[in-house]
Amino acid sequence: MYYPMNPAYIIVIITMIASWLIQRRLQSKFERYSQVGLQSNLSGKQIAELMLADHGINDVRVISTPGRLTDHYNPADKTVNLSEAVYADRSAAAAAVAAHECGHAVQHATAYAALQFRSAMVPALSAVSKFMPILLFLGVIMLNNTPLPLTIGVGLFALTTLFSFVTLPVEFDASKRALAWIDRRGIVTPQEHAMAKDALKWAALTYVVAALGSLATLLYYASFLMGRRRD
C-alpha cells in the first residue's frame, strides 16, 4: 500500500525541527540568565514562598525536584516543584521560573477556568495514551478492510491535540501573573525583568510548537480517512 507525502507530514517534520531549535535556544537563555545574580538576592525557593504568601496560599509546599527544566506545579498534592538549580539559585532565570510555577498555584487557588478544564482532561488522557499509538498503527494497516480502528485512534488523538491547545492560555496566563508580581513586589530590577520575560517567552514557544505539532500529526492521520472516503 502506497501513501504519498502530504502537507501534514511535512509540517510534522518542520515542527519537530522547530521544537529542537527552540529547546536549544531555551536552554541557552536559561544558562545565560542563570549567571545574572538578583539584586534582591532571593533564591527561587524564597521567591516562590513569598509569592504564595502574598496571594494568601498557605496549603502549597515548595519542594526541590531532580533534573534541569523539570519545574512544575502539581495540583494533586499542591506542591510547587522547582528543579535543583532553580530552587537554590538567586538569578533572573530562577526568579522567572519560580514565579511562573507559583502562577499555576494561584490559578488553582482562584479556580482559573482553563486550568480546571485541562486538569479534568488528565485522567482520560492518561488512560487512552497507553493504547492510542497501537490503534493508530493498526488503523493504518487495516484501513483497506475497516476504518473503525483508525477512526477511534484519530478521535482519541484529537483529545490530546485539544489538551495541547488548552495548555497555551494556562501557560501564558501563569507567565503574565509571574511577571506582574515580581515587578510589583520589587523582586527584580527593570533589566532583570526583561531577562525574566525573555526566558518565559522562549519557554512558552515550546508549548506553541508542541500544539502545532500535535495538530499536524492529527491532520496527517485524518488524511488517511479522508483519502479512503474519496476512494
In short:
This protein has 231 residues and is mainly alpha-helical.
Describe, in plain words, how this protein is organized in 3D.
With 231 residues, this protein is mainly alpha-helical. Helix 4 (92-109) packs across helix 8 (190-230) and helix 6 (132-141) packs antiparallel against helix 7. It contains eight helices and three strands; from the N terminus they run H-H-E-E-E-H-H-H-H-H-H. The chain has a three-stranded mixed beta sheet. A hairpin with a 4-residue loop joins strand 2 (72-74) and strand 3 (79-83). The radius of gyration is 21 Å and the shape is elongated. Helix content is 71%, strand content 6%. The protein has helices at 7-33, 44-54, 84-88, 92-109, 113-128, 132-141, 148-184, 190-230, and strands at residues 61-65, 72-74, 79-83.
